[in-house]
Write a structure and sequence with these properties.
Layout (H helix, E strand, L loop, with lengths): L4 H16 L1 H4 L14 H14 L8 H4 L3 H9 L6 E6 L5 E7 L5 E8 L2 E7 L3 E2 L7 E7 L6 E8 L2 E2 L6 E4 L9 E7 L11 H8 L3 E5 L11 H12 L2 H9 L1 E5 L2 H4 L16 H10 L17 E5 L2 E5 L16 H13 L4 E5 L20 H13 L5 E5 L5 E6 L7 E6 L16 E3 L4 E8 L6 E8 L4 E8 L7
Parallel strand pairs: 10-11, 11-12, 14-15, 15-16, 16-18
Antiparallel strand pairs: 1-2, 2-6, 3-4, 3-5, 3-7, 7-8, 7-9, 10-20, 13-14, 17-18, 17-19, 20-21, 21-22
């Protein structure tokens, strides 16, 4: 019998689950990283032991276990200067932000230069990673040129992390600039080691941004922040994920499995149940978004950002969801969305949601926008009445890819693109109501915005984990307009 290190580690994890009790450790059984996986294969059991098995603190984090002798020995063995990142985010036409996590408190800095003017150095401030934010810092570069390629390095305590192997990114187009760029998106990303190469596949397409639309990690334990953090660490330490995040701007919202539990609704109170704010804190520690709802007085994960003449509205359909009160967003977020749509001058306006918009959604609308028909109509009716053109709907949650047409009697047909099986094993059946529905293997969505012609276009593609395009649909801006 050929017994590998991976078999032994898998057996250890199963035994650990039986010893601790499934509810205490994991809601969905963790698929262990094979022991022969570089660095993470050795590191993962140490993290599980320090954060979960021998730790009763539900708020345990890297910051609280960083002096663990076994962890320190592993960090020294592999000379780990960064425990996560760099993660690119909040990229505009003249700035960019870089999220990093260090294994202990450290001074960090980003230094960049334009590929066309390599002699000019642009430096971020020197910051210390924060224990309060679980040893993370967000570094800003300003004064950049629009739609320009830059190379960069990260310094930790004054030393280069990448030893001269510079990383690259590109700024966004300026407002009004005629440009063409790609934006990837998807949900359903339970960590499945054999499927983690999807991040490498996405990297090959070099999208300007990637939108994580929820179920970005599967946790289902809102009262165990130690477990939540472990799941984020595991993903952030995957080399494929780190490569993508170093060159492609990440933007994220959550859905039920990374906010609460299956089909969860947070309710209208910003601070109750009492686990909501701590979960929000963990989310903020682990992403690089331009904003997080309304801040401490109105927590959440909604925000907007622009890339040239495309504006994205990232919505939070969990924190304030209360179907008995007829709301997905809550009053503050709903007003923000309606006001933002009315004010937007963008050629294309992308509204992203963690759950489906269509009236033919699964479960009869019990976990989708069809469950709050009046609020959905407020949004769609505003688009009709105000003749807000160029709206595209994105969603996730169901483990397949769908394209829906939502016909409007007093406006133009709205197109919804849903995809949520980035790395998941579980699959949902296809939908006959969709104009396209696909569920074979793993996949992601890609939007190509071409703002160069007189009639700009947006093209949707469904792309498999192998990099094969299985569906394409192009929409002209002139067709996305109320007469």
């Amino acid at each position: 019998m050929n017994v590998t290190l991976g078999h032994i580690w898998s057996a250890c994890v199963v035994l650990m689950i039986l010893t601790l009790g499934r509810d205490q450790l994991l809601a969905k059984d963790m698929i262990p990283t094979p022991a022969d996986t570089p660095i993470l294969g050795e590191l993962e059991p140490i993290l599980i032991d320090a954060l979960l098995k021998n730790n009763k603190d539900p708020d345990a984090s890297l910051a609280t276990i960083r002096k663990n002798p076994k962890l320190r020995a592993m960090l020294a063995k592999h000379n780990i200067k960064l425990f996560g990142g760099p993660m690119l985010g909040s990229v505009t036409h003249n700035s960019a932000r870089f999220w990093v996590r260090t294994p202990d408190v450290a001074q960090v800095q980003v230094i960049a230069s334009s590929k066309s003017d390599s002699g000019k150095s642009i430096q971020s401030q020197k910051l210390k990673t924060s224990v309060a934010m679980d040893l993370t810092a967000v570094l800003a570069l300003d004064g950049l040129e629009p739609f320009t390629h830059y190379q960069y390095d990260v310094l930790v305590n004054g030393e280069s992390v990448f030893g001269g192997r510079t990383l690259e990114f590109r700024t966004s187009p300026a407002p009004g600039q005629k440009a063409k760029f790609d934006v990837g998106f998807g949900g359903g990303a339970r960590l499945v080691p054999k499927n983690e190469h999807i991040w490498e596949t996405i990297s090959r397409f070099k999208p300007a941004a990637f939108l994580f639309l929820g179920d970005n990690v599967y946790i289902d334990k809102p009262k165990q922040r130690n477990l939540q953090r472990l799941y984020y660490y595991r993903r952030q330490l995957r080399p494929e994920f780190r490569k993508l995040g170093s060159q492609t701007a990440f933007y994220s919202i959550w859905d039920d499995h990374d906010f609460g539990v299956n089909d969860s609704s947070g309710g209208l109170d910003p601070f109750k149940p009492d686990w909501k704010v701590p979960v929000w804190k963990v989310f903020k520690e682990n992403w690089n978004n331009p904003g997080y709802g309304g801040g401490p007085k109105q927590p959440g994960c909604w925000y907007k950002f622009s890339m040239g003449d495309v504006e994205f509205f990232m919505t939070d359909g969990r924190y304030y969801r209360s179907f008995k009160d007829g709301t997905m967003l809550g009053p503050v977020q709903k007003k923000w969305l309606l006001d933002s749509l009315k004010a937007s001058k963008a050629t294309f306006k992308v509204i992203a949601s963690g759950t489906l918009w269509t009236e033919t959604a699964d479960k009869g609308g019990k976990d989708s926008w069809w469950g709050v028909k009046e609020e959905r109509e407020e949004i769609f009716g505003l688009i009709d009445r105000q003749k807000i053109g160029g709206v595209i709907l994105l969603s996730a949650d169901r483990h397949r890819t769908d394209v829906y047409q939502i016909k409007r009697p007093n406006g133009y047909t709205l197109y919804e693109f849903e995809t949520s099986k980035l790395t998941n094993l579980h699959t949902h059946g296809t939908k006959k109501e969709a104009i396209f529905s696909y569920n074979k293997g793993n996949f992601f969505g890609m939007l190509t915005f071409d703002l160069t012609p007189a009639d700009p276009t947006v093209t949707f593609r469904c792309i498999t984990i192998e990099g094969k395009t299985v569906y394409t649909l192009t929409l002209k801006r002139s067709k996305l307009q109320t007469p």
